[in-house]
Design brief:
single chain; about 90 residues; mainly alpha; 4 helices; about 55% helix
Length: about 90
């Protein structure tokens, strides 16, 4: 009886030793450095481009940020927790 209990307790430990702990991290390891290197290869003169980046202007960006901060200060109340994520 003790031997079978010991085997049952050791089996998960043995199988866990064969598993890769971080498959997603290992698969993407070093990709940030690779992406930066590739961007520099594609456009080596990017540092001389003085044109402003495309995107939101200052007032629109500030309004979006203020709305974002406000959403954490006074979160919207849900009357029924069973309806979370079901339409609005």
């Amino acid at each position: 009886m003790n031997r079978s209990l010991l085997r049952a307790a050791l089996l998960p430990l043995v199988l866990a030793g064969c598993m890769s702990p971080t498959p997603n991290v290992d698969r993407n390891l070093g990709m940030a450095a690779t992406d930066i290197r590739n961007a520099q290869i594609m456009n080596p003169g990017a540092d001389r481009n003085m044109a402003p980046p495309l995107g939101l202007d200052g007032p629109a960006s500030k309004a979006a940020y203020d709305q974002y901060v406000k959403s954490f200060k006074a979160p919207e109340k849900n009357a029924n927790s069973f309806l979370i994520g079901v339409g609005r």
